[in-house]
Description:
The complex is a heterodimer.
Chain A: E1 21-26, H1 31-46, E2 54-60, H2 66-80, H3 87-94, E3 97-101, H4 107-124, E4 130-134, H5 141-150, E5 162-167, H6 174-187, E6 193-196, H7 203-214, E7 227-235, H8 244-248, H9 251-269, H10 278-291, E8 292-293, H11 298-301, E9 302-308, E10 310-312, E11 315-317, E12 335-342, E13 352-357, E14 364-371, E15 391-397, E16 401-409, E17 417-425, H12 426-429, H13 437-447, H14 456-473, E18 479-482, H15 489-496
Parallel strand pairs in A: 1-2, 1-4, 2-3, 4-5, 5-6, 7-13, 9-18
Antiparallel strand pairs in A: 7-14, 8-12, 9-12, 10-11, 12-13, 14-15, 15-16, 16-17
Helix pairs in contact in A: 1-2, 1-13, 5-6, 6-14, 9-10, 9-14, 10-14
Chain B: E1 2-4, H1 9-22, E2 32-38, H2 43-56, E3 59-67, E4 75-84, E5 87-97, H3 104-108, E6 118-123, H4 134-138, E7 141-144, H5 152-162, E8 167-169, H6 170-173, H7 176-193, E9 199-206, H8 211-224, E10 229-232, E11 242-249, E12 254-259, E13 264-269, E14 272-278, H9 284-293, H10 299-309, E15 324-325, E16 339-340, H11 341-344
Parallel strand pairs in B: 2-3, 2-6, 3-5, 6-7, 7-8, 9-10
Antiparallel strand pairs in B: 1-4, 4-5, 9-11, 11-12, 12-13, 13-14, 15-16
Helix pairs in contact in B: 2-9, 5-10, 8-10
Amino acid sequence: MIPNPLRDPRDRRLPRVPPPCALVVFGITGDLARKKLLPAVYDLANRGLLPTNFALLGFARREWEDEDFAEVAREAAREHARTPWREEVWEQLSSDITFVPGSFDDDAAFDQLAATLGKLEGSHGIGGNAAFYLSIPPAMFPTVLKQMQRTGMAENTPERWRRVVVEKPFGEDLPSSRELNELVDSVFSADDVFRIDHYLGKETVQNLLAVRFANTLFEPIWNGHHVDSVQITMAEDVGIGGRAQFYEKTGAARDVLQNHLLQLLALTAMEEPVEFSAEEIRTEKLKVLRAISIPEDMETFAVRGQYEQGWLAGQRVNGYRQEEGVDPESKTETFAAVRLGVETRRWAGVPFYLRTGKRLPRRVTEIALVFKRAPHLPFADTDTEELGNNQLVIRVQPDEGVTLKFGSKVPGSVMEVRDVSMDFLYGEQFTESSPEAYERLLLDVLLGDATLFPRNAEVEASWTVIDPLEEFWAGTTPHMYRAGEWGPRAADEMLAAEGRRWRRP
Amino acid sequence: MTTLWDTTGSAVVKELAAQRRTGGAVLSGVALTLVVVADESRVAEAEEAATHAAEAHPCRILLVVRRQIDAPAPRLDAEVLIGGRLGPGEAVVLRMYGRLGLHAESVVLPLLAADAPVVAWWHAAPPDQLSTDALAIVADRRITDSSIPDDSLAALKTRAVDYAPGDTDLAWTRCTPWRSALASTLDSVSGRRSEPVEVRSGRIEGDPGNPTAALLAGWLTSRCGCPIAVEESGRKPGASGVDSIFLQLDQDEEVQLHADRKGSATISQPYRPDATVALPERALGDLLSEELRRLDTDEPYRDPLEAATGVTGLADRSPVREYVWLDPARENGNGARPRKRAAAKSTDS
Lengths: 505, 349
C-alpha cells in the first residue's frame, strides 16, 4: 500500500476500503448471487466499505437491460440485506450496476464483457481492477476461464489486479481437484485465486484463533495431555431442497466434510502461526491437514447414513429417496461421521470425531473439546455421579459464543457435584452485529487479503483424507436414520466402541 | 420496570440484583457500563441514543439527571429497567436532587459492572474542568459534545485546555464519514500514480463556528503539514458544518468534495470521473455507537484538537485526573476558583 498522508495506523475509525475496482459476477441470476452476494454488496455499501469508484457487473444468459437487472438486484438486496434499507444508498449503488447478457460459450458476449470493463474504467474510474466471481457450476469453469484467457481479462499488470473467486466444490476427488486447480492456475496466478469457504468468514471461527492465541488460559490445556477427544458437528435440519442433481453425485462427505469440517479441524488443531498473516496461518493449517490419519477399522469408525421419512420440528418430511429427482435406490449419503487422528506431538492419541448430516433435529455447528476426567476425586462415588467431563464448546452457529462446562456443588446439606455451564454469548458482550460471512469475504477479496481463504494445497490435502473414505464406502449402502434423529445408530456405536458418546449440541 | 421514590443507593443495587434474578433469560454479560449525564430537557434524546448504542454494544446504562442542586434536602429517585424501554440490557435512571448531585459517584460506583470499562457521556454542557465531576474520574473514556454550547469553538478550546487521554468529543465523531471519503480519495489518486501524494494546500468551505468543521480542518492541517482553514461558504452547511473541501496536491492536481444536501457528496478527482459517496447525517445513537466501538485512548483525536484550538502539549497530559472539589453554590462569579478537595473538606456538606 502506498503511504497516504491522511492514513494513520492508530486511526481505526477509518474503515478498510478497497481500491477502485469492479466486481464481475458470472451466474448473477443464481440462488447464491441473489441470496448472498447482492445483499452482501449492499451491506458493504451501506457500511461505507465500498470504494467510491466501484462497479458491479452481472453476466448471465438473460435478455436484460441494465435497469431490469438493477430492479432484480434491488429486490434481492432488499429482501436479504442484513443492515437497514436506505434507498439513497441503493440509488447510488444502482448507478454502478451494469449487465452484460450472453452465454458462456459465446465469444461475442465475452468480447462485449471485456469492452464493458474497459468502458467502466472511463465512466466509473475502476482503475482496471476487477474481481471475477464464478458463481457457476464447476462444469462451466473451463469454458469461462478459457474465454477470460482469450480476451485477456485475467491478466495482471503492474497497474491493475485481476482476481478470481471460486466456490466449492473444489473438485470431487483428488485428481479432479488437481485438474481444476491446474486449470484455474493456468489462467490466474495462484495468489489471485480466492477459494471461498464461507465458514471461515464467520466471526466465531475467527474468534477461535483469538481464544487460542490471545489468552494464556487455554493454551496449556490445548493438547493430548488434557484433551480426551474433540467433537466437531455440523448439523442441518433442512433436506437437500432442490439440489437433488448436485447432491446425488456429491453426498455429505464431499459437500461438507471435505471443506468445512476439515477446515474447522485444522483451525482447532493447528500450532500457533508465526504471525497473524495469510501465509503463516495457511502454512499451519496445511501441516495439520497433512498430519491427519484415517481409521484402520473403517467399518466401525467411518459411518455414513441416509435419512428416511420421519417427523422434524412438528412436520412430516420425506425420506431422501423420496425427494424429487433422487434415485429411489440411491446410495448417496446425507450423513457422515468419521473418527480421525492428528499425528503430531500435540494431538497423538486424541480422536477427532467429525459428523455432519441433513434432517437432523436442529441446525447447529460447534466444536467441542472434551477434557479428561480428574485422575482422582476426593469425593465419594455417589457425590460425583452426575459429573461429566469438562468441556469447552465453541458454538459456531447459531447463538455464536463459547460454553465452558464444569462441575459445581449442588446447593444443599450433602456434597453433590453436578455439571453446570458458563456461557459467553457473542451478541451479548459485543459490540456490533457480526457481518455476514459473505460480506467479510467479499471485502477481503477486494482488499486482496487471503487470510480466510484456503490454498489449493489445503484443498488437495483434504481430498487425500476423503478419497480413501469414499473408496471404502463405494458400493455400500448407507445406514438409515429417521429424519429428526441425531443420525444412524452406527454413529453412536462408533463412539460407544471407545467408551464415549456424542454431545447433544 | 420498578420505580423507587426517595430511595438510597443500596436499595437500587438490591433492586437491580432482584430484577436480574426474576427477569428470567436476561443478558448475563455486559462489556461496559455507560454513564450518561443529561439535563432534564435532554433526557429523552439521551435515552434514545443510549438505547440505540446499547443494541450494538450490550452495556449497563446508568442515566444520571441532576436536578435542583439548591433543593434543601437531597433526594434520589430511581427507575430500574431490565429489557425494557432502554434496550435489551440493564438500565437505571437516577434522578438526583439537592446536594446529592455533587456526590453522584456515591450512587454510581456500586452500580458499575464488575471490572468492565466505564464510559461517561455528557449529553449536556460538560463542566469546564472535567475533574470537577467525580463521574469523569471514574470513567475510562469520556465523551463530550462541543456542539451543545452556543459558542462551540470556545467549548472546543475548553476541551483542549482540559484534555486528558481518553477524552473524545462527538464533534470529532461527526468528522468520520468526511475523513473516510477524503482518505480513500487520496488512496485512489496515489494508486493511480503508483507513488505517494502530498497535499500542498487546501481549504474547507462551511461554517467557521462549527466544531466539526474546525476539527476536520485541524485534522487536515496536522496530517498534511500545511495550514487548512474553514472559510465561510455561500450556502448553509449541514450539521457537520462542512459544505466543500478543496485540496491541492503536489502534481498540480485538485481534489474536491461537495456535500449535496441529500445525504451524499460528490468527489472530483484527477484521473477519474466524478463519484458520489453517501455522507448521511448520522443520528446521535450512531455517533455514540461509533464511540463505544473502541475503548482505548483515541490518539488521532489529539493532534486535530491541538491544531484546531492552538493549545499545545496535549501529548504530555497524564491520563489520570485528580478530583477537584467545586461547589457551585459557592461559585459567585467573583473569582471563586475550584479548590482541591482536601482544602475544602471542612466546608463540604
